[in-house]
Amino acid sequence: MGNIKEVLISEDKIQNRILELAQAIEKDYDGEILMIGILKGSTIFMSDLVRKINKNVYMEFIQVSSYEGTESTGTVNIKKDVEIELVGKDVLIVEDIIDTGNTMGYLIENLKQRGAKSVEIVTLLSKPARRLKEIECKYIGFEIEDKFVVGFGMDYNQNYRNLPYIGIYDNSEENI
Ligand code: 5GP
């Protein structure tokens, strides 16, 4: 597909890593697991992850906004909220990528304020070089360099989410 400079992480590598994450999560949690996926980027990762866990997973979703194109706007707003009571719950947030940490920092605080007993994070990707806010992330798929990536749920202006691999987006030309 145009504007993908290179494949950064292949489909096989992603699936192998997701299996490892699923096994670690399954081992760490007793009984049902409450996962909150962050829309829309986490959906592909979450759907593969939950199907590799041999325990009941309760799936919730939350939507926040902080990005326009390839730039973080810095302010985070909840656009669609979860539909459950959070008091006393052990929550596992599912994210596609942690970049500056602004989104995750805001969400952790928000879910805790609403009474969640614990909040842990599983993210497919992390860009540590870009971090502005320190985030304790229990499960990380891959740490990557400071490159704008698309595919496997991640978009550029709502495109490329359905790529089965993670690619580096080349924004030198603006056509898809
Ligand atoms: P943060 O708040 O950590 O800066 O940004 C988190 C969100 O920004 C992610 O959920 C994702 O939607 C978006 N994001 C950050 N880096 C990238 C990237 O390289 N590619 C894409 N497609 N989205 C990104």
UniProtKB/TrEMBL annotation:
<comment type="pathway">
    <text>Purine metabolism; IMP biosynthesis via salvage pathway; IMP from hypoxanthine: step 1/1.</text>
</comment>
<keyword id="KW-0808">Transferase</keyword>
<dbReference type="GO" id="GO:0052657">
    <property type="term" value="F:guanine phosphoribosyltransferase activity"/>
</dbReference>
<dbReference type="GO" id="GO:0004422">
    <property type="term" value="F:hypoxanthine phosphoribosyltransferase activity"/>
</dbReference>
<dbReference type="GO" id="GO:0032264">
    <property type="term" value="P:IMP salvage"/>
</dbReference>
<dbReference type="InterPro" id="IPR000836">
    <property type="entry name" value="PRTase_dom"/>
</dbReference>
<keyword id="KW-0660">Purine salvage</keyword>
<dbReference type="GO" id="GO:0005829">
    <property type="term" value="C:cytosol"/>
</dbReference>
<keyword id="KW-0460">Magnesium</keyword>
<feature type="domain" description="Phosphoribosyltransferase">
    <location>
        <begin position="17"/>
        <end position="156"/>
    </location>
</feature>
<dbReference type="GO" id="GO:0000166">
    <property type="term" value="F:nucleotide binding"/>
</dbReference>
<keyword id="KW-0479">Metal-binding</keyword>
<protein>
    <recommendedName>
        <fullName>Hypoxanthine phosphoribosyltransferase</fullName>
        <ecNumber>2.4.2.8</ecNumber>
    </recommendedName>
</protein>
<dbReference type="GO" id="GO:0032263">
    <property type="term" value="P:GMP salvage"/>
</dbReference>
<keyword id="KW-0547">Nucleotide-binding</keyword>
<dbReference type="GO" id="GO:0006166">
    <property type="term" value="P:purine ribonucleoside salvage"/>
</dbReference>
<dbReference type="InterPro" id="IPR029057">
    <property type="entry name" value="PRTase-like"/>
</dbReference>
<dbReference type="Pfam" id="PF00156">
    <property type="entry name" value="Pribosyltran"/>
</dbReference>
<comment type="pathway">
    <text>Purine metabolism; GMP biosynthesis via salvage pathway; GMP from guanine: step 1/1.</text>
</comment>
<dbReference type="InterPro" id="IPR050408">
    <property type="entry name" value="HGPRT"/>
</dbReference>
<keyword id="KW-0963">Cytoplasm</keyword>
<keyword id="KW-0328">Glycosyltransferase</keyword>
<comment type="function">
    <text>Purine salvage pathway enzyme that catalyzes the transfer of the ribosyl-5-phosphate group from 5-phospho-alpha-D-ribose 1-diphosphate (PRPP) to the N9 position of the 6-oxopurines hypoxanthine and guanine to form the corresponding ribonucleotides IMP (inosine 5'-monophosphate) and GMP (guanosine 5'-monophosphate), with the release of PPi.</text>
</comment>
<comment type="similarity">
    <text>Belongs to the purine/pyrimidine phosphoribosyltransferase family.</text>
</comment>
<dbReference type="GO" id="GO:0000287">
    <property type="term" value="F:magnesium ion binding"/>
</dbReference>
<dbReference type="GO" id="GO:0046100">
    <property type="term" value="P:hypoxanthine metabolic process"/>
</dbReference>
<dbReference type="GO" id="GO:0006178">
    <property type="term" value="P:guanine salvage"/>
</dbReference>
<dbReference type="InterPro" id="IPR005904">
    <property type="entry name" value="Hxn_phspho_trans"/>
</dbReference>
